[in-house]
């Protein structure tokens, strides 16, 4: 497995690949929010590879990069309230719900989006 980093001044993209096949990726925007700092906009692991630690490794690498490049050493992301698998994952990594916002889903219905935040990244960066 190999991790590639593509970063600009304000954005970080991490890609996990093996034998030329993408296994997982993460995209973050440094200092996207004045209070919550870096926004983890996307974290995705190929469904058949979940549970093997790729998501945890990506979260750790994002946290390390935030500590090195962000003005604020804080991280947040948004997840739909009904996505219990993702919520459990973020909670196991120390994420805390800090906000709930109703928003339009792709099908036009209203759903709750929860913000998970990390004010301390050293724990997350160690995983």
Main attributes of the structure:
127 residues, alpha+beta, Aminopeptidase, 7-stranded mixed sheet, 7 strands, 47% strand, globular
Structural class call reads: alpha+beta
Biggest sheet character? 7 strands, mixed
- The run of helices and strands is EEEEHEHEEH
What percent of residues adopt helix (DSSP H or I)? Answer: 10-25%
Task: Name the average pLDDT.
Answer: 90
Overall outline:
globular
Strand content: over 45%
Tell me the number of strands: 7
- The assigned CATH architecture is 3-Layer(aba) Sandwich
Strand order of the largest sheet: 1-2-3-4-5-7-6
What is the fold named in CATH at topology level? Aminopeptidase
Q: Regions with pLDDT < 50 over 5+ consecutive residues?
A: none
Kindly provide the radius of gyration, computed on alpha-carbon positions and rounded to a whole number of angstroms.
14 Å
* First-to-last CA distance: 17 Å
User: How many helices in DSSP terms?
Assistant: 3
Q: How many structurally independent domains?
A: 1
What's the CATH superfamily, by name? Gcn5-related N-acetyltransferase (GNAT)
Describe the structure.
The chain is of the alpha+beta class. It has a single domain (2-125), classed as Gcn5-related N-acetyltransferase (GNAT) (Aminopeptidase, 3-Layer(aba) Sandwich), CATH 3.40.630. It is 23% helix and 47% strand. It contains 3 helices and 7 strands. A 7-stranded mixed β-sheet has the order 1-2-3-4-5-7-6, covered by helices on one side. Strand 4, helix 1 (54-69) and strand 5 (75-80) form a beta-alpha-beta unit. The two termini are 17 Å apart. The mean pLDDT is 90.
């Amino acid at each position: 497995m190999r991790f590639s980093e593509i970063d600009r001044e304000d954005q970080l993209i991490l890609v996990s690949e093996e034998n030329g096949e993408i296994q997982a990726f993460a995209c973050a925007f440094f200092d996207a929010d004045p209070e919550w700092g870096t926004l983890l906009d996307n974290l995705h692991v190929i469904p058949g590879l979940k549970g093997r630690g790729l998501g945890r490794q990506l979260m750790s690498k994002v946290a390390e990069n935030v500590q090195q490049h962000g003005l604020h050493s804080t991280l947040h992301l948004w997840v739909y309230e009904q996505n219990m698998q993702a919520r459990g994952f973020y909670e196991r990594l120390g994420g805390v719900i800090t906000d709930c916002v109703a928003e339009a889903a792709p099908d036009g219905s209203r759903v709750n989006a929860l913000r998970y935040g990390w004010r301390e990244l050293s724990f997350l960066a160690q995983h």
